[in-house]
């Protein structure tokens, strides 16, 4: 179980061999009868045990940590052995389902990446990126909007909504690209009336139907290699529009089929992610309800 930084993440080690393990881990061995190891594994993930860990965690340490002796003081609710087996079987089934969904998502990502990289290997019928998009940069800082609340989303560098405010600076579906700091060169799609934080800029396709196409190009190996060439190494990474704006983009008239395939893959991926999120919510509720 992890005990420094990330606290309370368990894993089962199936071996009788001698072990060496990193200082950030605690090795827990069952020393009493009638305790199912997988029951304990799931109990450690429950909100009940997390509360026990939280009470004994040193929160003013950096990173936060819990001493191994304090872990031993945490209380564990032990049900009878048959109930332990039942809980293990039920939650194991949920985990197997989650693992299957995760495998499908990874396979879909690889399939999508393969199609994109293969498509953009073509060099004929190419146009400069700057002929296909307008670029819009952002200077919006978090301290400028800390007291502002409204309906328009502000996207952060993870692609998530940081908060909602009462104004917007872009009303177009666009492609946000990180221009400064961690993740420099990463892209994601932003939609509707919105804002982005100042660590990013946006590419707005001249033709709205090209959104999927241009976004796919920003994910291909060719574009990533060009960005990597300009991103500074050893200091805070940054990437300017001028670094990649003249990049040639394979741009044939026959783009419709490619766009449809990518959109279908994206739709399937989003459905799988939604299924995984819903199943994770169910698991968290079960972890709460089963250990009462």
Structure characterization notes:
The chain is an alpha+beta fold and about 290 residues long. It contains 8 helices and 11 strands. About 40% of the residues lie in helices and about 15% in strands. The two termini are about 20 Å apart. Strands 4-10-7-8 form a 4-stranded antiparallel β-sheet, covered by helices on one side. A 3-stranded mixed β-sheet has the order 6-5-9, with no helix packed on it. A two-stranded antiparallel ribbon has the order 1-2.
Can you tag this structure with a few keywords?
alpha+beta, 4-stranded antiparallel sheet, 41% helix
List the helices and strands and how they pair.
Blueprint: E1 3-4, E2 6-7, H1 37-45, H2 47-56, H3 68-71, H4 81-119, E3 126-128, E4 133-137, E5 152-155, E6 161-165, E7 174-178, E8 187-190, E9 195-196, E10 200-205, H5 211-219, H6 221-230, H7 241-244, E11 248-250, H8 256-289
Parallel strand pairs: 5-9
Antiparallel strand pairs: 1-2, 3-11, 4-10, 5-6, 7-8, 7-10
Helix pairs in contact: 4-8
């Amino acid at each position: 179980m992890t005990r420094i930084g990330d606290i309370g993440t368990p894993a089962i080690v199936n071996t009788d061999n001698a072990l060496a393990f990193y200082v950030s881990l605690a090795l827990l061995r069952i020393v009493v009868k009638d305790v199912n190891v997988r029951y304990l594994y799931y109990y450690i993930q429950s909100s009940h045990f997390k509360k026990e860990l939280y009470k004994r965690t040193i929160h003013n340490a950096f990173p936060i940590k819990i001493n191994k002796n304090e872990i031993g003081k945490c209380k564990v609710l032990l049900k009878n052995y048959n109930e332990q087996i039942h809980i293990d079987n039920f939650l194991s089934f949920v985990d197997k389902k989650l693992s299957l969904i995760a495998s499908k998502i990874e396979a879909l990502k690889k399939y999508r990446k393969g199609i994109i990289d293969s498509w953009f290997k073509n060099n004929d019928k190419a146009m400069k990126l700057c002929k296909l998009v307008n670029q819009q940069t952002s200077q919006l800082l978090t301290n400028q909007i800390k007291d502002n609340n409204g309906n328009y989303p502000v996207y952060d560098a993870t692609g998530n909504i940081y908060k909602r405010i009462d104004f917007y600076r872009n009303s177009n579906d666009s492609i946000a690209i990180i221009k400064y700091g961690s993740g420099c060169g990463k892209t994601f799609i932003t939609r509707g009336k919105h804002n982005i934080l100042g660590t990013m800029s946006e590419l707005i396709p001249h033709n709205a139907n090209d959104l999927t196409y241009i976004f796919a190009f920003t994910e291909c190996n060719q574009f990533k290699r060009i960005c990597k060439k300009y991103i500074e190494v050893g200091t805070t990474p940054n990437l300017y529009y001028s670094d990649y704006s003249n990049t040639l983009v394979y741009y044939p008239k026959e783009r419709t089929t490619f766009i449809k395939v990518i959109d279908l893959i994206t739709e399937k991926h989003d459905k799988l992610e939604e299924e995984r999120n819903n199943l994770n919510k169910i698991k968290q509720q079960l972890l709460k309800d089963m250990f009462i």
